[in-house]
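Q: How would the structure tokens look for this protein?
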Amino acid sequence: HGSIRNLTHTSGIWERYPTWSPDGKWVAYLSDRSGEYELYITPQNGMGQETRITTDGSMFRYPPVWSPDSRRIAYVTESFPPDVNGVASTAMRVAEQLAWHGHHPLVIAPEPATGAPEIGTDFPVVRVPAVGLPVYRGFRLGLPGARVREPLAAQ
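A: Here is the predicted structure in token form.
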């Protein structure tokens, strides 16, 4: 209910899954303007800068989901530093971008392999128990449980 406005002013670009933040100030959506789907946020009033949050379109993108207080967007990844791969690097950049723009990311990621170096971040990283896949031990599969439920409930 209200006026219709074009927030992105694009033509020939696919934009999907527009999702209003609960406080009504932001719209998160996916756009393929870079050639691959990336996550963007923009002020809902059309004023101010649009922000590209992700930069690695090779990852599958799910529709964005806001936290009830509009400070977080759910971002699902299967890898995070100190793992060294494109997914882990992108996940770190996404969390850094969200923090830089005043959001409060919470990363839930698989425990790294034994002996992997610790990393420092300006945001919480909750590690869940993980096992390496038999054919690719470097890829760790996180196991759901209380370590996932507790931090989410606290948010």
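The chain has a mean pLDDT of 78.

The helical segments are 86-100, 146-154.

Upvote if useful.
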